[in-house]
Write a structure and sequence with these properties.
This protein has seven helices and no strands. It is mainly α. Helix 1 runs antiparallel to helix 2, helix 1 crosses helix 5 and helix 2 packs antiparallel against helix 3.
C-alpha cells in the first residue's frame, strides 16, 4: 500500500467520526428549529400533528444520538427511514428529481444516515465508552 493510502486508511475512523458529528448536529438543528422555532424563522410544528411534529422529534432525538455516537446505528437507521418517508411522501409528487421537488435535504440526509448505518460511528463516539459492539469499542489504529 502506498504511503498516502496508508495514512488515509489510518485516518478513516476519525473522518467517519467527524462526518457523523456534523450530520447529527445538522439533523438535530432541523428538529430544534421545527419544535422550538430556534435557529431559523420557520413555523414550529404543533404538538402531536402528523407527520410534522413526529418528524421533528425524530430529527432532534436521532440527530442528538448520532451526534453523540450513542446507539448510532439504530438512530441512523431511524433517521434514514424518516428521510426516505419525507422524500417519497412530501417531495416526490412535485417532480422526479430532488432538484426540481426541493427534496435535496431529505435525499442527502437519507443517504448520509444509511452510510452511517453501514460504517458505524467512527471515532469520538460514546458507544465506545458505554457499550456498543466490540468493533465499536475498539480504538482506531494509529501510526
Amino acid at each position: 500500500m502506498n504511503p498516502l493510502a496508508n495514512r488515509l486508511q489510518q485516518a478513516q475512523p476519525y473522518a467517519l467520526g467527524l462526518f457523523r458529528i456534523v450530520i447529527g448536529l445538522l439533523f438535530a438543528c432541523h428538529g430544534a428549529a421545527s419544535l422550538f422555532g430556534v435557529l431559523g424563522d420557520g413555523p414550529t410544528a404543533t404538538a402531536g400533528t402528523w407527520p410534522g411534529w413526529y418528524a421533528a422529534v425524530i430529527q432532534l432525538g436521532a440527530g442528538a444520538l448520532v451526534l453523540l455516537g450513542l446507539g448510532t446505528r439504530s438512530a441512523a437507521f431511524l433517521a434514514s427511514g424518516s428521510m426516505a418517508y419525507a422524500y417519497f411522501s412530501v417531495h416526490q409528487s412535485e417532480g422526479l428529481f430532488p432538484l426540481e421537488n426541493n427534496g435535496e435535504a431529505s435525499a442527502l440526509f437519507c443517504w448520509a444516515f444509511l452510510l452511517i448505518v453501514f460504517t458505524g460511528p467512527g471515532a469520538f463516539a460514546l458507544d465506545r465508552v458505554f457499550g456498543g459492539t466490540r468493533e465499536e469499542r475498539r480504538e482506531p489504529v494509529t501510526a
